[in-house]
């Protein structure tokens, strides 16, 4: 049974009302701001500990931060069914999980939320470490002395000495430095050289903050003290690190994870940047328990990072519906432009466009070259998929060797969709000619660029991720656009002579 047109309007109105009501409730009752810049910056960090238990008592100790420099911890929770949990504080803060018996794969979660607070930049960084007496093997003693003497001549204090040493350790042509690195990791080598020069330093572990990252490991950094100041150095890269971009997780140089009663243990980290008003921070404990505060923020951070992109797909679908139903553009595939727009979000627009044109153009040439083989449809598409994967692999390798890091993300393009697109364009070329191929290709690119322009806006990303009720508003918009049965904008071009004659006759 077909619904009346008025019923569609009522359905859309109800969806808009429910979506806006939920969003207003999130804003008014739970302090979630409408604008991304009108709130405190928060970082949600989740540590996932995995191990294989052997049927014996298990004790897992994970180093956890309190208030790392530049951040204030505002909330923390864990998920560890069957385990007892204690937070211990002595020289450092650790979370300790214990159980009498466990077997098989065990997964423990620790999650904390940190508020960016620049006033805590020099607080809780710890006292300078004691300078240790350093001894080297005879083969390394001469190498360490020469590296240190060269760096000493080009430095004025402890910090500049650390910079000079970090540069030399990153110089692959420096044979003395490479000899030291063959025996010790870069961070350990830098600390030993600084202690040899009587400069206080230690190895610490931190996370490089980047929104939406998953399955990350702690990075070793070298903390150097000099005249009441401290700096972070990445000994592997040979550079000084901006402390605002790093959250120090373990600052004493001790172990991050210790496991008794298990094997094959590892810890990985996921991170997500969010924003919340001061009022919302004050209600942190009650917000997470509210049923009506419908959000995905209770999910593990690795899943939240995925949803940041997934929740933008309805907006892309809305753009496709608008351009196909209202404007009248033809696209190659219904929602292929949305997936291309998602790839553009990761690669940026210009590299994404170049990559898309190269892959599709190369795929069309290969498809035309094997047209005389008379393969069946499934075989043709399979061959095109293999060719697309080969093109993408080639572009990735070339981009890496040419220094274009954005080209390394070319694998984000939906390969199966690209293969079907190439096959459809090839058939269209044979049946209708190149004009229709270029028309659909241009329509797909225009739609993808428009979807990218909307989806890459910080305000849009903030609203769609934090206010799930707006998904209903987008759904209502799609329903309203889908009920349109009038002329498309591009179709009006055909009636231009008629309109001109009508205007002249009057």
UniProtKB/TrEMBL annotation:
Protein name: Uncharacterized protein with transglutaminase domain
Domain Inactive transglutaminase fused to 7 transmembrane helices: from-to ranges: 25-183
One matching Pfam family: Transglut_i_TM
Coiled-coil regions, chain positions: none
Keyword Cytoplasm set for record: no
Keywords tagged on the record: Membrane, Transmembrane, Transmembrane helix
Lineage: Bacteria, Pseudomonadati, Pseudomonadota, Gammaproteobacteria, Chromatiales
Organism: Alkalispirillum mobile
InterPro entries, alphabetized: 7TM_transglut, Transglut_i_TM
Domain 7 transmembrane helices usually fused to an inactive transglutaminase: 255-498
Transmembrane segments: 305-327, 339-365, 377-398, 410-429, 441-460, 467-487
Domain of life: Bacteria
């Amino acid at each position: 049974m077909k619904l009346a047109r008025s019923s569609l309007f009522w359905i859309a109105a109800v969806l808009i009302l429910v979506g806006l009501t939920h969003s207003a409730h999130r804003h008014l009752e739970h302090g979630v701001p409408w604008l991304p810049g009108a709130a405190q910056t928060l970082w949600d960090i989740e540590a996932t500990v995995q191990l294989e238990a052997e049927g014996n008592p298990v004790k897992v100790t994970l180093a956890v931060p309190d208030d790392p420099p530049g951040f204030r911890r505002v909330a923390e929770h864990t998920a560890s069914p069957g385990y007892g949990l204690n937070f211990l504080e002595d020289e450092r803060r650790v979370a300790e999980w214990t159980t009498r018996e466990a077997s098989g794969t065990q997964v423990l979660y620790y999650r904390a939320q940190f508020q960016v607070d620049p006033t805590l930049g020099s607080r809780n960084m710890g006292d300078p470490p004691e300078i240790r007496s350093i001894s080297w093997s005879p083969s390394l003693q001469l190498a360490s002395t020469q590296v240190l003497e060269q760096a000493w001549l080009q430095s004025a204090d402890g910090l500049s000495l650390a910079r000079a040493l970090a540069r030399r350790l990153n110089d692959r042509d420096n044979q003395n430095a490479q000899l030291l690195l063959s025996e010790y990791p870069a961070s350990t080598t830098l600390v030993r050289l600084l202690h040899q020069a009587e400069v206080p330093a230690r190895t610490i572990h931190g996370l490089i903050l980047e929104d939406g990252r998953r399955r990350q490991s702690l990075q070793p950094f070298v903390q150097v003290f000099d005249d009441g100041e401290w700096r972070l150095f990445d000994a592997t890269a040979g550079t000084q690190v901006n402390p605002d971009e790093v959250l120090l997780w373990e600052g004493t140089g001790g172990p991050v994870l210790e496991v008794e009663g298990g094997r094959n243990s590892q810890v990985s980290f996921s991170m997500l940047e969010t924003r919340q008003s001061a009022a919302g921070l004050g209600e942190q404990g009650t917000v997470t328990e509210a049923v009506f505060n419908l959000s995905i923020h209770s999910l593990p951070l690795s899943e939240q990072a995925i949803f940041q992109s997934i929740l933008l797909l309805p907006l892309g679908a809305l753009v496709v519906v608008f351009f196909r139903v209202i404007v009248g553009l033809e696209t190659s595939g219904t929602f292929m432009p949305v997936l291309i727009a998602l790839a553009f979000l990761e690669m940026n627009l210009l590299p994404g466009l170049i990559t898309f044109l190269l892959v599709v153009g190369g795929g069309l040439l290969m498809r035309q070259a094997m047209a005389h083989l008379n393969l069946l449809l499934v075989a043709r598409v399979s061959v095109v998929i293999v060719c697309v994967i080969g093109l993408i692999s080639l572009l990735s390798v070339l981009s890496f060797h040419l220094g274009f890091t954005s080209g390394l993300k070319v694998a984000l393009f939906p390969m199966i969709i690209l293969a079907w697109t190439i096959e459809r364009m090839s058939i269209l070329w044979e049946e209708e000619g190149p004009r229709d191929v270029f028309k659909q290709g241009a329509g797909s690119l225009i739609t993808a660029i428009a979807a990218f322009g909307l989806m890459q806006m910080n305000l849009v990303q903030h609203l769609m991720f934090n206010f799930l009720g707006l998904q209903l508003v987008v759904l209502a918009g799609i329903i309203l656009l889908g009920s349109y049965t009038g002329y498309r904008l591009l179709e009006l071009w055909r009636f231009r002579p008629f309109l001109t004659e009508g205007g002249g006759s009057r």
